[in-house]
Amino acid sequence: MSKAGFELRTTRGNKLAEMIGSFSQSVTEWTGSSLAFFIALGIVIIWAVTGPIFHYSNTWQLVINTGTTIITFLMVFLIQRAQNKDSLALQLKLNELVAAMEGASNRLIDVEHMSEKDLKLLRSHYRRLVEMSVEDGDLVHSHSVEEAERRHLKKHRNHPKRRSEDESSKRS
Q1: Which of 47-51, 112-116, 125-129 has the weakest average pLDDT?
Q2: What is the pTM of this model?
Q3: CA distance 101 to 92
Q4: Which of 6, 51, 53, 105 could form a disulfide with 144 if both were Cys (CB 3.0 to 4.6 A apart)?
Q5: Are 156 and 162 in contact (CB under 8 A)?
Q6: Is 2 helix (H, G, I), strand (E, B) or coil?
Q7: Mean pLDDT of the chain
Q8: CA dihedral of 90, 94, 100, 104, whole degrees rounded to 10
């Protein structure tokens, strides 16, 4: 049982979905193997060698075109499924690290669901962190966005020139 009061358990879903998932995982792993590459290379070589036998006919070309089209069509879905699963697993791992790290900004936990505009704004905050680190001469010290903003505002308020500018603007 975790501190949050719930236990993480793997769930069993629909049998068909499990079978499809298992099959696609196996196919994805196999098609990424050296053996699969050499089999595909062998098929292409055999096809090229048989060109003169079939007089480079339209049927001979159609065989390779049809075969590669079907395989490509199916592989797009397998690759996308594997990519989605890997991406989700990676996001969950990163979320765990952010949630567990003291001082980390919790706004990053579900960052993949932010709008593109918000992501660009967040990126600009992190770029500003780098700039502040360069200004401070300390590139190895890490801060959250909020902590860096608080430190920056504190420095800004304590800076003699800025303080006098702020006071004069209040009088106006």
Answers
A1: 125-129
A2: 0.57
A3: 14
A4: 105
A5: yes
A6: coil
A7: 81
A8: -170
What angle, 0 to 180 degrees and rounded to 10, lies between the N-to-C axes of helices 160-171 and 145-158? 80
Helices (H), 50-159: 58-100, 116-136, 145-158
DSSP 132-172: HHHHHT-SS----HHHHHHHHHHHHHH-HHHHHHHHHHHH-
- For 162, residues 6+ apart whose C-beta sits below 8 A from its C-beta are 156
Nearest to 145 by CA among 132, 156, 154, 158: 132
Note the pLDDT tens digit of each residue in 20-76. 888 888 998 999 999 999 999 999 999 999 999 999 999 999 999 999 999 999 999
Alpha-carbon distance of 22 to 92, in angstroms, equals: 21
